[in-house]
Amino acid sequence: MKYNPNEIEAKWQKKWAENKTFAAENNSDKPKYYVLDMFPYPSGAGLHVGHPLGYIASDVYSRFKRHQGFNVLHPMGYDSFGLPAEQYAIQTGQRPEDTTRVNIDGGVDKEGNQIAGYRTQLDKIGFSFDWDREVRTSNPDYYKHTQWIFIQLFNSWYNKTTDKAEDISTLIALFEKDGNANVNAVSDDNIAAFSAAEWNAFAKDEQEKILLQYRLTYLAETEVNWCPGLGTVLANDEIVNGVSERGGFPVVRKKMTQWSMRISAYAERLLQGLDTIDWSESIKESQRNWIGKSVGAMVDFRLQNSESSISVFTTRPDTIFGVTFMTLAPEHELVAQITTAEQKAAVEAYIEKTAKRSERERMADVKTISGVFTGAYAEHPFTKEAIPVWIGDYVLAGYGTGAVMAVPCGDERDYAFANFFKGQNGMQDIKNIFDKDISEAAFGAKEGFQLVDSDFLNGLGYKEATKKVIEELENIGQGKGKINYRLRDAVFSRQRYWGEPFPVYYVNGLPQMIDAQHLPIILPEVEKYLPTEDGLPPLGNAAVWAWDSVNNKVVDTNLVDNTTIFPLELNTMPGWAGSSWYWMRYMDAANENEFASAEALKYWESVDLYIGGSEHATGHLLYSRFWNKFLKDKGFAPTEEPFKKLINQGMILGTSAFVYRVLGTMGIPPVFVSSTIYKNNNLDFVHSELKRIHKEYNVEEWSEQLTIGFSPIHADVSMVNSSDELDVEKFKGWREDFANAIFLMEENGKYIVGREVEKMSKSKYNVVTPDNICAEYGADTLRLYEMFLGPLEQAKPWNTAGISGVFGFLKKLWRLYFDDNGLIVTNDEPTKDNLKSLHKTIKKVAEDIEGFSFNTSVSQFMICVNELSTQNCHSRAILEPLAIVISPYAPHIAEELWSLLGNEGSIATVAFPVFEAAHLVESEKEYPVSFNGKMRFTIKLPLDLTKEQIEEIVMKDERTQKQLDGRTPNKVIIVPGKIINLVG
Hints:
This protein is an alpha+beta fold. The protein is about 35% helix and about 20% strand.
C-alpha cells in the first residue's frame, strides 16, 4: 500500500470543508485561543512559496492548541482594497472589483489569463482556517462598519483630563457652559478663546468649523506626499528613496485639504502600551522611535518688525543663550510672510527644489547641507539680540513646530550648517556657552559641563539650567515646559477609486456625516479610474454620486442643488482603514447590524498570537493599536491592546537564474555566454566566437578592438534544472527578442546559468509556486519543508532540491504503518527503546511549538522515524500517538493514518500525547573502557551498580583479560555513569 499524497490530501480537505472541522464557537466551555495571520492582498500573481511561511507556522500552532483542548479561532480573509488593483484596472480596462474577485476565487480574467485564485491555493496547503468567518475589506458588508467607525471618530474628541476619547456632545456641553478656556483637549494649535456666550451666539457653520479643530478625524490643509504619476497622496511608508513604492513615480510635497486622524492624541498610550505586550524588542523600538517622545520646552522668538513670532520646541532649553541662528522648514507658513524682497527669488527656488524630496529622504540624508537666508531676524527672548532666520530642509514642517533654535556649539547638525554658511549674509559666528573646546566639533552631552556666557544660567548644569530657564520663560510669557512627540496625525485621504467611500456629504463646504442606518455608502460605477480633467479624484467621474438628504440615498450627480441634494466626498479612505480593525470582525463575521456583538468581543477579547511581516512595524501595527484604543474608549473593544504576542516571520528568498548577454555586438542576434565564461572573463574566446558569428552573418565591421562587456539578465527559473542547466529552446521561446539568440556553451555543450539568492519576486522570475510543489510532492511535504528551512524569524533561501528529502521522510513514516500488502501495525507491547524514541519526540515537539522553533521539530521527526525503523517498531501504542504528534505539521497524512488505524472522526481535536519523563530515564550506561587513557572497548552496565560491582564485572571480562595479558593494573579508576580507566 503506497503513500499517495494527492489522493489523501484531496480526500481530507473535502472532509474538513464538509464537516466544518475547524469552525470556532463563540461560546464554549473550552478555553479560547485566537491565532491571527496578517491577511494578504490578493494580487493576480497569486501565492509563491514565500507567502505561506507565516500561515504554515500559525497553522501548526493552531492545530497544536486544538490538540491541547482549546477552542481555537484561526480565520483568514483578504485586504482587498488598494492601489495595485486600481493601477491594474487602469492598465487593462478592467473593473477593480472584477479583478479582485477573480484573484481570490479563481477564474479567467478579461485578458484571458487563467488565475488560480488565492482561496484554491490556500486550500491546497491544508490550512485549518475557519472559512465561515472570511472577510474581504472591499465588500460593502465589511466596509459599512469601517464607515461606521469613521463616523464614531468624527463624533469624538480626546479629553486629556480623563485621558480618553469622548463623544463630541460632551465637548459641546462644555462650550455651552464655560466656553473653551478651561477645556483640556487634544486639538489644533492656536485656537482662539471664546466664552459660553460667544459660543452660543456663533452661527452653526462657525461652530462646526471650531469643532473640526477638536474632532478625532478632521479636515485640514496638510503637507502631503503627492504622487502625480499615481494621482494620489501616499503615506511615508509607501515611498522608497523619494519615489512611489508602487511604480517608482516621483513624489513631491504639496499642501492639500485632507482628512486626518488625530492619532497624536494617543501617543503616550501607544508608547506605554508597548511595555504590556509580548513583541520583539526591534518592533517595539521602531514604534518608540516613530512616536518619538521628547521632554523640553516651547519657546517663542518674536520677529523683528512684525507682530508674529516663531514658536520652537526644544529638548535643550538650557542652551538658549547659545542660539546663533534659527531654521524654519521650507514649508513653514511664516516663510512667505517674512522673506525679504532681496531673498525672495532664492527662497522660492529652494522651496521648489525641496518639494521633490520626501520627508523620509530628508530625515535620512545627514550629509547634504543646504539652506537659504530669509532676510528676516528674530529677537532673543532674554538678550533681545537679532537672530538671523534661515530655511533648511533638515527641518520638517510636521515635526515639532517646523522650526528650530540652532545652537551650533551643542548640536552637530547645527554646527555643520553654521560652518558651511560661515561668512555668508545672515550667518553669525558660533556662540560657545560651554566650558569646553568646540573648535573641532559640537559638544552634545547633557552632563560634565558648566554653562558660561549664559547670563543667569552661568555655572549651572543641564538639569538645574533647564528648570530655571523654563521658570524665567514663563515669567516673561515667552515659553513653557512641554512634552512633544514626533508622531504626527495620520493623513486619511487618498485621491483614488478603489478604497472605502467616506460616509460624508458637504453643506456649505462643511462635512456632514450620513446617518449610520443608511450605510453602506457603496462605491459608484465610473467609466475610468483616472482623475478628472480638472484634477479631481476618480470619483469626480461618477454620474451617480450625490446625497439626497431627504430620501437618504445616493442620486445622480447632476441633481446637486445644495438645498436638499449635496455633493459627496470624492476622496476614498487609505489602504490601512480596513486593516485597522479586521481582527474584531472575525470574532462575529456574520453580524449584519454591528461590527461584532458585545458578547463575541467579550469572549475572544484580543488576539493571543499574531504572525506577520516586520515591514508593518510603524504602519498597520501602529494604526491598528490606535483604532483598538479608540474603540475601547467608546466601550466597544474589551482590551487596550489588540495583539498580545507578535511573531515576525522571515522572508523566503528565491534563487535567481542569470544568463549573460554580450554587449558590443553589431548586426547579429543576441549572444549569451555561459556562466563559467562570464565568471572567468574569457575575452579571447568570446572575441574569437564573435568574429566567427559576425562573419556568418556577413557583418564585416566586427573588430577585435571593439570593447565588449556582459549584461546579466534574469531568466525564468522554470527553464533551469537542478544542475543549473538552461533549457535553451524554452528560453528562445520565452521572449520574442531572444528567438534567434546564439549561446556560447560550456565545453560539455551545456549552458550553465549563474545563481544568486535574492528576494522572491515575479519581476526576478525566481518565483516557485506552492501549487507545483503540492501537485508533485503533496502539501504535507511543502509544510514540513518550509518549517525545516530554518528559524521562523530568519530569512532563508528556497532550494527546491531539498524537497525530495522531506518527501522521502514521509514515505518512510508511511512504511512504519504499511507495507505493499496493507496495514502492518500490531498490538505488541512497545520496547523501552520504542517508548524512549516516542516520548523524546513528544517532549521536543511540544517545547518547540511553544517556543516557535518549528525547524528543530522536523529534525526530531526524522530522528524518531529513523530510530523506530531501525527498531522495527510497528506497535500501535507507539504509532498511534506519533500520528497525533506529527499532525500539526503534516495534517493530511496524520488524518489518513489515524483513520486507517480504525479511529472515528478527525485527528484534529484528539488530545496531544502526554510526555512521561520515566521513559527517558536511562537504566543502563554504555561505558568506554580505557587502558592508560586509550579507549579499547565499550561495555553496557546497569546504572545502579556500585564502583566495586563495576570493577568486578570489568576485570572478569575476557576483553580486559586480553588487554592486561596477565598483568595487574596499578589503579582502576571508575566514575559511575561516566568512565572506566585501568592504569599500569
